[in-house]
């Protein structure tokens, strides 16, 4: 399968632990496409025990804390709308003590945000109390985001009293970037910082899987009544966020805690590769190439037009690095020998990978692949 998709960006490697998945939890997840999604829905529905809405306050005071050296590691509330991954946080919240009462500005208090607005499902249970899509967030930013969909914001930002736009950590509200693969929506959207886009995407994938039998009854710009679950512009957006922001240790720890708390897991944190196994054609269009070979694929630098995927490399490949879903290096080849414009990378187990190619002239190219 060929693709001339390339993405240029700096790649940060984070070593993280593997999720503590109960033995046999995904044994019945054997299908592909939307069949796999339905199988996952049955798995995560069967064990789900509704703990009630107010119980989340106690959960978040223990399990939504900044205990990570990648951030401040200070035990404050880890809020995706105030955490500054590139510097000092604009403000911090103490669990329980800084829960909202009244507020009229950013940085006053935190409350519970439904990542999927609760008005969509008329505040019904168990959706309202499902902690997989509940996050502790700044009260004013939560209100600023309101019920708007998530998406990439263009140049027209929205002004509101009591808050800057972008917010103090760089999140923003404005018109949707309605172009290319992401075309099809022209309304207002909210965009979190890059650090947490994958988190938001995987929460949505969980939600439309857990409640796939009910989605058709709800009206929301992001949803569709078909098995696809998300309308095209938002599916492409969230796939892009998922592919470019790998699962973090925070997500893994939270997923394990949520399993103990309410009896079910987010399968897309445990198995990020499930995403492109379900929405495979969309992933391929985005540049996440799916290979049918179990152990190898070939790189064909231009001007060849044959092979698994093509890169815009004119000269020598300095190195090839392959990362797994957790950002860990599984192979690193220095000065790979390219014979007849072909280099075959072998011994890859089935799964999801990022492949980074360092070209002597043009820099770094990264593509995403799924080896079946």
What attributes does this structure have?
hydrolase, Endonuclease-I, globular, Secre_tail, 372 residues, 2 domains, disordered N terminus, endonuclease, alpha+beta, His-Me_finger_sf, Immunoglobulin-like, five-stranded mixed beta sheet, 9 helices
Account of the 3D structure:
With 372 residues, this protein is α+β, with helices and mostly antiparallel strands. The protein starts with 32 loop residues before the first helix and ends with a strand. 23% of the residues lie in helices and 19% in strands. The protein has nine helices and 13 strands. The protein is globular, with a radius of gyration of 21 Å. It has two domains: 33-286, no CATH class; 288-371, Immunoglobulin-like (Sandwich). The strands form four sheets. Strands 6-13-12-9-10 form a five-stranded mixed sheet. Strand 12 and strand 13 (363-371) form a beta hairpin. Helix 4 packs across helix 5 (232-244). It has helices at 33-46, 56-63, 139-145, 197-210, 232-244, 249-262, 267-270, 273-278, 280-286, and strands at residues 110-114, 134-138, 153-157, 172-176, 188-191, 288-291, 297-301, 309-311, 317-323, 329-334, 343-345, 351-359, 363-371.
């Amino acid at each position: 399968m060929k693709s001339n998709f390339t993405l240029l960006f700096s790649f940060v490697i984070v070593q993280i632990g593997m999720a503590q998945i109960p033995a046999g939890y995904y044994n019945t997840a054997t299908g592909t496409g939307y069949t796999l999604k339905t199988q996952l829905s049955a798995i995560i529905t069967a064990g789900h025990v509704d703990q009630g809405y107010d119980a989340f306050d106690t959960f978040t005071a223990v399990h939504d804390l900044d205990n990570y050296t990648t951030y401040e590691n200070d035990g404050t509330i880890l809020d995706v709308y105030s955490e500054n991954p590139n510097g000092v946080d604009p403000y911090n919240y103490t669990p329980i003590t800084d829960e909202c009462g009244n507020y009229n500005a950013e940085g006053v208090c935190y409350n519970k945000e439904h990542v999927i607005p609760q008005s969509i499902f008329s505040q019904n249970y168990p959706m309202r109390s499902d902690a997989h899509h509940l996050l502790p967030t700044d009260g004013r930013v939560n209100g600023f985001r309101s019920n708007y969909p998530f998406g990439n914001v263009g140049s027209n930002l929205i002004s509101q009293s009591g808050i800057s736009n972008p917010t103090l950590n760089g999140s923003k509200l404005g018109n949707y970037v309605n172009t290319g693969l992401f075309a099809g929506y022209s309304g207002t959207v909210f965009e979190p910082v890059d650090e947490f886009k994958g988190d938001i995407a995987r929460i949505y994938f969980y939600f439309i899987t857990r409640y796939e039998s009910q989605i058709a009854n709800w009206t929301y710009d992001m949803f569709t009544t078909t098995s696809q679950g998300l309308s095209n512009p938002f599916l492409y957006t969230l796939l892009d966020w998922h592919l470019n922001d790998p699962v973090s240790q925070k997500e893994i720890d939270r997923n394990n805690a949520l399993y103990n708390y309410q009896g079910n897991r987010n399968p897309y944190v445990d198995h990020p590769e499930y995403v492109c196994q379900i929405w495979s054609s969309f992933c391929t269009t985005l540049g996440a190439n799916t290979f049918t070979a179990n152990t190898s694929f070939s790189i064909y630098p231009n001007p060849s037009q044959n092979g698994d995927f093509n890169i815009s490399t004119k000269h020598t490949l300095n190195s090839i690095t392959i990362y797994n879903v957790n950002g860990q290096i599984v192979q690193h080849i220095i000065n790979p020998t390219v014979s007849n414009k072909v280099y075959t990378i072998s011994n890859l187990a089935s799964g999801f990978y990022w492949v980074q190619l360092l070209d002597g002239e043009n820099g770094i190219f990264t593509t995403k692949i799924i080896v079946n």
